[in-house]
Amino acid sequence: MVSSVADGAKLQPSRAGSRLCVRCGERKAALKRPKTLDQICRECFYIVFEDEIHQTIVDNSLFKAGERVAIGASGGKDSTVLAYVLSKLNRRHNYGLDLFLLSVDEGITGYRDDSLETVKRNEIQYGLPLKIVSYKDLYGWTMDDIVKAIGLKNNCTFCGVFRRQALDRGAALLKADKIVTGHNADDIAETVLLNILRGDIARLSRCTFITTGEDGPIPRCKPFKYTYEKEIVIYPFYETSHIFICIYSPNAYRGFAREFIKDLERMRPRAILDIIKSGENFRISTTTKMPEQGTCERCGYISSQRLCKACVLLDGLNRGLPKLGIGRTKAGDGKDRAKHSERNTSSLQGKHGNFDF
Ligand code: SF4
Ligand code: ZN
């Protein structure tokens, strides 16, 4: 399903009239920067937007020269802007990275086939090689098949678990050293809150890490960790004016954490950064038992259990018992549901297919 970007996602002109840009002091301010509320001209906005991402990459030593980096590309705004900005910074600052686009085809007719068209355009526009891995090839099931088998209740649980593993497998095929995803500051603040509300200590301790999975098959990092969603939306290189909405995303449920963060941001934009900071400052007591990482007996994927979550879910599907393995697990469920239902209701639409951590 495709719809056009809502009004709220467009550039908000500055109400400052003839006020000058606070950065250059020469041009007229054209907008109020969402992150700082500074009155700024367009040219300076693009510069600070890109410079802050470059600074995040440098400060956190995200990459080493010569690395092969797979950009998790969904066709949505975050990953589209990420692909554009990262290839630009790679050239401008000589990072020396080999960049690739990596997409997951869940097999959702009318949704993923459309968004993959955007990724294919990006492949040409940005000159980045594209690899697409599909659920059908990896697991023998498309999401369309899965929904036929299980209905619309737990579909996002299957999808989230399968997507995570599909990305790792695709990155391995590309011989990538790293995966980067378009998770932005709003996503991370939302995850901090959700993990607090759920009491999920294991995830709380790592959800603010800019790089995760260093002990797993391929580390993942988030160059947009401090980038505000509103700024990604107004950055001009998100050229497609379409957003893609999964036909299986639940409509009624609206992510509490997401809504709450938007409210806080309206009152005080810095709240998003402060929540991330609080998450970073959490110290986990050494008496808290953390799950031990091993590998799945069947497929070799990292797992804290005998079988990884994907193998358990697949087992259930193949045996005609799809409820098997749908327990208290949270992978891919709440976050995707919250994000995707937000897309259906918010004026800041466009959030799709971000890859769960
Ligand atoms: Fe998968 Fe997202 Fe669709 Fe759920 S809403 S089925 S997680 S693509
Ligand atoms: Zn497995």
UniProtKB/TrEMBL annotation:
<dbReference type="GO" id="GO:0005524">
    <property type="term" value="F:ATP binding"/>
</dbReference>
<keyword id="KW-0820">tRNA-binding</keyword>
<dbReference type="GO" id="GO:0032447">
    <property type="term" value="P:protein urmylation"/>
</dbReference>
<dbReference type="InterPro" id="IPR056369">
    <property type="entry name" value="CTU1-like_ATP-bd"/>
</dbReference>
<feature type="binding site">
    <location>
        <position position="78"/>
    </location>
    <ligand>
        <name>ATP</name>
    </ligand>
</feature>
<dbReference type="InterPro" id="IPR014729">
    <property type="entry name" value="Rossmann-like_a/b/a_fold"/>
</dbReference>
<feature type="binding site">
    <location>
        <position position="182"/>
    </location>
    <ligand>
        <name>ATP</name>
    </ligand>
</feature>
<dbReference type="InterPro" id="IPR000541">
    <property type="entry name" value="Ncs6/Tuc1/Ctu1"/>
</dbReference>
<dbReference type="InterPro" id="IPR011063">
    <property type="entry name" value="TilS/TtcA_N"/>
</dbReference>
<dbReference type="GO" id="GO:0016779">
    <property type="term" value="F:nucleotidyltransferase activity"/>
</dbReference>
<dbReference type="GO" id="GO:0002143">
    <property type="term" value="P:tRNA wobble position uridine thiolation"/>
</dbReference>
<dbReference type="InterPro" id="IPR035107">
    <property type="entry name" value="tRNA_thiolation_TtcA_Ctu1"/>
</dbReference>
<keyword id="KW-0963">Cytoplasm</keyword>
<dbReference type="InterPro" id="IPR032442">
    <property type="entry name" value="CTU1_C"/>
</dbReference>
<feature type="binding site">
    <location>
        <position position="187"/>
    </location>
    <ligand>
        <name>ATP</name>
    </ligand>
</feature>
<dbReference type="GO" id="GO:0000049">
    <property type="term" value="F:tRNA binding"/>
</dbReference>
<keyword id="KW-0547">Nucleotide-binding</keyword>
<feature type="binding site">
    <location>
        <position position="104"/>
    </location>
    <ligand>
        <name>ATP</name>
    </ligand>
</feature>
<feature type="domain" description="Cytoplasmic tRNA 2-thiolation protein 1 C-terminal">
    <location>
        <begin position="294"/>
        <end position="324"/>
    </location>
</feature>
<keyword id="KW-0694">RNA-binding</keyword>
<keyword id="KW-0819">tRNA processing</keyword>
<dbReference type="GO" id="GO:0005739">
    <property type="term" value="C:mitochondrion"/>
</dbReference>
<comment type="function">
    <text>Plays a central role in 2-thiolation of mcm(5)S(2)U at tRNA wobble positions of tRNA(Lys), tRNA(Glu) and tRNA(Gln). Directly binds tRNAs and probably acts by catalyzing adenylation of tRNAs, an intermediate required for 2-thiolation. It is unclear whether it acts as a sulfurtransferase that transfers sulfur from thiocarboxylated URM1 onto the uridine of tRNAs at wobble position.</text>
</comment>
<comment type="similarity">
    <text>Belongs to the TtcA family. CTU1/NCS6/ATPBD3 subfamily.</text>
</comment>
<comment type="pathway">
    <text>tRNA modification; 5-methoxycarbonylmethyl-2-thiouridine-tRNA biosynthesis.</text>
</comment>
<dbReference type="Pfam" id="PF01171">
    <property type="entry name" value="ATP_bind_3"/>
</dbReference>
<feature type="region of interest" description="Disordered">
    <location>
        <begin position="328"/>
        <end position="357"/>
    </location>
</feature>
<keyword id="KW-0808">Transferase</keyword>
<feature type="compositionally biased region" description="Basic and acidic residues">
    <location>
        <begin position="330"/>
        <end position="343"/>
    </location>
</feature>
<protein>
    <recommendedName>
        <fullName>Cytoplasmic tRNA 2-thiolation protein 1</fullName>
        <ecNumber>2.7.7.-</ecNumber>
    </recommendedName>
</protein>
<dbReference type="Pfam" id="PF16503">
    <property type="entry name" value="zn-ribbon_14"/>
</dbReference>
<feature type="domain" description="tRNA(Ile)-lysidine/2-thiocytidine synthase N-terminal">
    <location>
        <begin position="69"/>
        <end position="261"/>
    </location>
</feature>
<dbReference type="GO" id="GO:0002144">
    <property type="term" value="C:cytosolic tRNA wobble base thiouridylase complex"/>
</dbReference>
<feature type="binding site">
    <location>
        <begin position="72"/>
        <end position="74"/>
    </location>
    <ligand>
        <name>ATP</name>
    </ligand>
</feature>
<keyword id="KW-0067">ATP-binding</keyword>
